[in-house]
Amino acid sequence: MTIDIISVVPDLLNGPFSHSIMKRAQEKELLKVNVINLREYTTYARAQVDDYPFGGGAGMVLMIEPLVNAVEALTKEKIYDEVIFLTPDGNTLNQQMANQLSLKNNLLLICGHYKGIDQRFRDHFVTKEISIGDYVLSGGELAAAVLTDAIGRLIPGVLNDETSALSDSFQDNLLAPPVYTRPEVFRDWKVPDVLMSGNHKLIEEWRFDQSIKRTQERRPDLLDDLKK
Question: What is the per-residue pLDDT for 228?
Fold first, then answer.
């Protein structure tokens, strides 16, 4: 899979893909992440990519021309399954969305900045708009990193144990159960006996019950969705 990310401040994305699982995914050549500097596609002086909004108001808006120049240059080299704009008013990212996107071959992510991007670009080039939550960030770079990580870890072969992702929270509309590791006893706090029993059937039943309990306590809305 290839994920290309268009950004005004590409240096913000140096860290997230240089360590841990995302680094290993790229070393295994299962995932390729390219960060593209939008300023390289502007024809304006001093690499300008933003301007004041028509109609007045605070803040700056990313101009349509550099964005279109970038996308049209990139689409000459590859076909994108989705052109995704990271924006607070997009559809909220969830596990099912990440699952679906992990099956694609080429994704292009557009990082907003300042007050956003010219609506005409959204109307004519963006195929999907995604939000990572009901809050506003300074730009879309951190959201792009979150989305890339959520997708990338689902690619077969990225995780050492391919069954690990299947037991993550939200995969089956349930939160993950509690987990424990060594030592078995710490300050008189003991790991539940069932986990030490070696009885895999009982362990799986316990984990499922704990998932239901945790979901009921913390995210009952997920159980409502499950009933639909």
Answer: 59
